[in-house]
């Protein structure tokens, strides 16, 4: 995942890669948190060398980014019972500011 601030929004990418197109295509992505102040979208499957890649992008509003404690990207393979979960700590400690962003 990466974060990038554009227009007071945090943009996070969850990239799925694999050697089989069907496996990448069949993987589903769930973002936590979801709901108010968030939006997500998935890209088309694209070849990347010998691999296939799909990207899910979550956009959080500025307020939501700084109040969330954790953001998760959960990838569930079509025939798997256990998802692969990646965590990203969001926000900042109380009172701390990133220079140039606020």
Any overview of this molecule?
The protein has 102 residues and is mainly β. The chain has a single domain, classed as Sandwich (Immunoglobulin-like), CATH 2.60.40.10. Helix content is 12%, strand content 50%. It has 2 helices and 8 strands; from the N terminus they run ββαββββαββ. The chain has helices at 21-26, 62-67; strands at 3-6, 9-18, 28-32, 38-42, 46-48, 51-61, 70-76, 84-89. The strands form 2 sheets. Strands 1, 2, 4, 5 and 6 form a 5-stranded antiparallel beta sheet that branches. A hairpin with a 2-residue loop joins strand 1 and strand 2. The longest helix is centred in the first third of the chain and has 6 residues, at 21-26. The chain is globular. The protein starts with a strand and ends in a 13-residue tail after the last strand.
In short, what is this structure?
The protein has 102 residues and is mainly β. The chain has helices spanning 21-26, 62-67; strands at 3-6, 9-18, 28-32, 38-42, 46-48, 51-61, 70-76, 84-89.
Essential attributes:
single chain, 102 residues, mainly beta, Immunoglobulin-like, 2 helices, 12% helix
Secondary-structure map:
Blueprint: E1 3-6, E2 9-18, H1 21-26, E3 28-32, E4 38-42, E5 46-48, E6 51-61, H2 62-67, E7 70-76, E8 84-89
Antiparallel strand pairs: 1-2, 2-6, 3-7, 4-6, 5-6, 7-8
Number of helices: 2
Q: What is the CATH architecture assignment?
A: Sandwich
* Number of beta strands: 8
Q: Uncertain segments of ≥5 residues (pLDDT<50)?
A: 92-102
Our count of domains comes out at 1
Net shape: globular
